[in-house]
């Protein structure tokens, strides 16, 4: 149920703050109007005509992920669990982003597919394709609801409107530019939003550090103790008491299954790289995005930790005392309320609105592509004019936005949205990654194994979630004694293992496709020259995907060691 405006707290914005926010909205819609002029074909609307440079798609790649859950969810995790939250970045993101750039993007881009489900159709046929397309579409509607709910929360805190009114107003803004300009409007806005988000969160972090007395002040005051400033073994984060099992859950469940499942097969992210103007640019896009990604914890998690020290309501919440309607999701908002003067508050609010719109627009633009190409064109109307599918894409954008208003109600029931999000990833991304990676490197895997593995893996994740303590609230059975994000890690691991086992068994009893049909879809059957640009070997080091990926890998290892 979506609640009306509550009396917990309001952001004390003045005319200057409102003017900054209004100016930002005008710019966002203006970008949508300008991008509309570039849309003449469905490829323009859904994939920006594959014409954008790597730096644009790279920033859009990271900005699309820098949405409501990244800002509110990770700061909530920081407030509740401390530095262990960095695992979502340094273990659960950067390595997979580098792998996507070096290994996976050449297959996606070189095959000429328009979406990840289309790649699945070419590799496994319509069975796996339909399962993947439907599950992806549902996931995007649910995740768009999370971004929309948090976007509406900001409007509610600013204006005091009932939350349902805020939801409709927020949805209308995102709809205006995604329906007008398609992916180009989303991507150009995401590049702008990246800089606005950093401009908002960096000053907040500096002010918060000054307030608490720097890093030494954090060490002295953090509750329940300095163990919250160590990233390993992360038992609070996982909810697993055994340090060894907690580390295994983080490394295998988050670092391998959930991370690689999300970053390498999630079309929301892959779509941005697909809009690049060459294979080399497509490979660089996620690698470029990995560099800001590894430093985002310092402007998201650190403020969350400080909020749990300096914000009275969160201090009470963390101590187990009554704190009104305040949730950990409010950490960044409460910090802004208490620390930022007017003017700077307006920039911070614009930054938060930017992050939420970036996340929702990414979900909606990916949804309309998969719905139009992979569901409508494939199974409903096959041979219509190109302009027809562009119209379907715009209608799908409207429909998805309306549905997201409904799914926002589900998100409003979670005090820490990372629990909800990781549960969804376990359902949809983990089994897809298992099917995808097995099919890419094992030419014997059959089409029947593709869809049966996906269905079995998803069912395993759902079962583990129901057997855990709080994945579905009162509907959960609590048999396994798992809770929070640790339950999501175990569910993802179960999905991956079950998917692999079922796929192998089914493959043994079904007939594989001819090898000639799998060129460009299976690693061992694809000519290596088709996976690179002819002039890639002559690129300077700062444009060479392998060299950039190597630098990124070294940096993220160093960060993990420093904050061990």
Euclidean distance between termini CA atoms: 41 Å
The averaged pLDDT comes out at: 81
CATH architecture of one domain: Up-down Bundle
CATH fold title of one domain: Sodium/glucose cotransporter
- Based on DSSP secondary structure assignment, what is the total number of beta strands? 0
How would you characterize this protein structure?
The protein is mainly alpha-helical and 564 residues long. The chain has a domain at 15-222 and 267-413: Up-down Bundle (Sodium/glucose cotransporter), CATH 1.20.1730.10. Helices cover 73% and strands 0% of the residues. It has 23 helices and no strands. Helix 6 (94-111) packs parallel to helix 12 (243-265), helix 8 (126-159) packs across helix 9 and helix 18 (344-379) crosses helix 19 (386-411). The longest helix is centred in the first third of the chain and has 50 residues, at 163-212. Keywords: Membrane, Transmembrane, Transmembrane helix. Belongs to the sodium:solute symporter (SSF) (TC 2.A.21) family. It is found in: Membrane.
Task: Record the SSE blueprint.
Layout: H1 15-36, H2 42-47, H3 54-65, H4 68-81, H5 87-90, H6 94-111, H7 116-124, H8 126-159, H9 163-212, H10 214-221, H11 235-238, H12 243-265, H13 267-274, H14 279-295, H15 297-310, H16 312-318, H17 331-339, H18 344-379, H19 386-411, H20 417-441, H21 447-467, H22 484-508, H23 545-562
Helix pairs in contact: 1-9, 1-18, 3-9, 3-13, 3-14, 4-15, 4-18, 6-12, 6-14, 6-23, 7-8, 8-9, 8-18, 8-19, 8-20, 8-21, 9-10, 9-15, 9-18, 9-19, 12-20, 12-22, 13-14, 13-18, 14-23, 15-16, 15-17, 18-19, 20-21, 20-22, 21-22
């Amino acid at each position: 149920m979506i609640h009306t405006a509550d009396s917990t707290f309001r952001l004390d914005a003045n005319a200057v703050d409102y003017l900054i926010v209004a100016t930002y909205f005008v710019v966002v819609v203006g970008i949508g109007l300008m991008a509309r002029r570039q849309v003449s074909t469905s490829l323009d609307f859904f994939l920006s005509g594959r014409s954008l440079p790597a730096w644009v798609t790279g920033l859009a790649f990271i900005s699309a992920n820098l949405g409501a859950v990244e800002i509110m969810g990770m700061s909530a995790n920081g407030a509740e669990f401390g530095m262990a939250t960095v695992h979502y970045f340094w273990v659960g993101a950067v390595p997979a982003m580098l792998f996507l750039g070096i290994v996976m993007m050449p297959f996606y881009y070189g095959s000429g597919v328009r979406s990840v489900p289309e790649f699945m159709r070419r590799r496994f046929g319509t069975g796996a394709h339909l399962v993947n397309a439907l599950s992806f579409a549902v996931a995007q509607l649910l995740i768009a609801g999370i971004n929309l709910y948090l976007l509406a929360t900001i409007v509610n805190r600013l204006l005091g409107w009932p939350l349902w009114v805020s939801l409709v107003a927020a949805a209308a803004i995102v709809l205006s530019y995604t329906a007008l300009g398609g992916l180009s409007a989303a991507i150009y806005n995401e590049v702008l939003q990246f800089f606005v988000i950093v401009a908002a969160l960096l000053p907040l972090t500096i002010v918060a550090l000054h307030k608490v007395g720097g890093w030494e002040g954090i060490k002295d005051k953090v509750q329940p103790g300095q163990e919250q400033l160590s990233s390993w073994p992360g038992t609070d984060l996982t909810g697993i008491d055994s340090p060894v099992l907690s580390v295994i859950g983080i490394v295998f469940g988050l670092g391998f299954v959930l991370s690689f499942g999300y970053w390498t097969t999630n079309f929301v992210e892959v779509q941005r790289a697909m809009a690049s103007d060459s294979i080399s640019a497509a490979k660089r896009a996620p690698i470029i995005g990995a560099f800001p990604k590894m430093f985002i914890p310092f402007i998201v998690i650190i403020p969350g930790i400080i909020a749990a020290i300096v914000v009275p309501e969160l201090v009470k919440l963390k101590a187990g005392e009554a704190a009104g309607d305040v949730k950990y999701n409010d950490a960044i908002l409460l910090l802004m309320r208490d620390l930022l003067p007017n003017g700077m508050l307006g920039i911070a609010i614009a930054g938060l609105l930017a992050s939420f719109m970036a996340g929702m627009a990414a979900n909606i633009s990916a949804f309309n592509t998969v719905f139009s190409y992979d569901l409508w064109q494939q199974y409903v109307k096959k041979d219509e004019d190109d302009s027809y599918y562009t119209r379907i894409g715009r209608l799908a954008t409207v429909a998805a936005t309306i549905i997201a208003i409904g799914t926002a109600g589900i998100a409003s029931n979670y005090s820490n949205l990372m629990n909800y999000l990781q549960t969804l990833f376990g359902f949809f991304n983990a089994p897809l990654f298992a099917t995808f990676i097995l099919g890419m490197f094992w030419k014997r895997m059959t089409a029947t194994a593709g869809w049966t593995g996906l269905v079995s893996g998803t069912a395993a994740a759902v079962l583990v979630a129901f057997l855990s303590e709080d994945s579905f609230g009162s509907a959960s059975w609590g048999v396994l004694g798992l809770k929070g994000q640790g339950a999501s890690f175990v569910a993802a691991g179960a999905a991956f293992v079950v998917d692999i086992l079922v796929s192998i068994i089914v493959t043994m009893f079904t007939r594989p496709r001819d090898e000639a049909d799998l060129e460009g879809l299976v690693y061992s059957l694809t000519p290596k020259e088709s996976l690179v640009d002819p002039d890639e070997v002559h690129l300077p080091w700062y444009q060479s995907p392998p060299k950039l990926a190597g630098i990124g890998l070294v940096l993220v290892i160093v960060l993990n060691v420093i904050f061990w």
